[in-house]
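ok trying again, last paste got cut off:
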Amino acid sequence: MVFSKFFKSPAKYTCECCLRGHRDAILCLAVSNSGALLASGGFNGLRMWDLCQKVQLAQPPQIRSPQDPITAVAWLAPNDRIQETLCCGTALGYIAIWRQCPNMVVDFEEVVFRKISGGHEVMAIASDTGNGTGNHIILATQDRCIQAWTLDLRNHFSNMFSVQLMTSIPCAI
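nice, full thing came through this time. structure:
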């Protein structure tokens, strides 16, 4: 094979465990910043797992329609907090943010649930810390928009700006 002299053989991976929880298609996955938690979204909602214990955590409360799958998930960048924070987007344009309850590994509380894009699918989510003032969250939606939001330390979620692309639907950011 031509490529064999340029590329090493791929590493052999073995299945360490099987995480069961979804009964339908999984559309997105994200590992927490600490590496301890895994979130997955799909047609039957959000699931979270403790990767150290290899167990599914209790599902955070989800006020959503079965016709509104989770299409994007991202763990927010840590912001001098111990708690993990998860941001999810849905096919109907909702954004939900869950923050880990203080001193609790398995409990999360919903701090934001809002329709952000006139019913257009959230395609991608990215974040960074906002210089100690909270998180900046960037969302890409199916209606060709890129939106920048701020989640401050008091869980106030506010729009910074939005731009609409002329010809491209953003699939990743």
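cool. The longest strand covers residues 108-115. The two ends are 35 Å apart (CA to CA).
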